[in-house]
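chain below, 251 aa
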Amino acid sequence: MGYHSSPPVTMLLTLFNVRLGWWLGNPGEAGQTTYGRSCPEFSVGPLLTEAFGFTDDEKRYVYLSDGGHFENLGLYEMVQRRCHVIVVSDASCDRQSGFSDLGNAIRKIRIDLGVEIELDVNSLRRKDGTDHSLWHHGIGAIRYDIVDPGAPQGLLIYLKPSLTGNEPADVLEYASYHPDFPHESTADQFFDESQFESYRKLGAHIVHEVFDETMSNPARKEGRFFEDLRAHWTSQSAQEDQSRPAPSVPR
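prediction:
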């Protein structure tokens, strides 16, 4: 179970076939003869390896799981690989705008890798007294230069299911009758047609909102899409800050 692994629990999960992964051929050097296989030819060995918690990445087969028991967004592995541009879609259930999965990822990355992630999520929080946030996303910096002086900073584009009020009419209609939308419990694994379409359309709307203006900008230079995207939303953020009323000073 990844970060929360426990030998007794691992044994019980294996014995009762409550398993969270799949055995596949190792894509590394150890799996040169097994990489193309969909499963082990002989299952007893891998089953015992799984039951006793001896799985690693050095055998002919590896036990592949979704990684959610360690870090749910996949951000940790991308930073570890020093990806320059990372797009994260955080679809976790987060009614209170606590950003627990994001916080968990940032914390682990700082502790294990020494890399800071600078990201302002205030524009994603619900406005007081409403179910709407200002934006659907945040643009952040991945500070590789803290570990390797002189290294270029990375770009983090963080997408979060939210409502800003300009969504299509059918999405807003669904939200009006389902107060938890778009953060309904992940225990609900049986979406009906309206529910599925509302989430699908909201996701498409968010992607268009974040990327379309930069994509359609005739002044955009070839090979500079993400730099232009960052510049566009940085200017939008500055304009929003200027439009906010100044806080009152108590006398």
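Residues 193-215 form the longest helix (23 residues). Residues 143 and 153 are 5 Å apart (CA to CA).
thats it, cya
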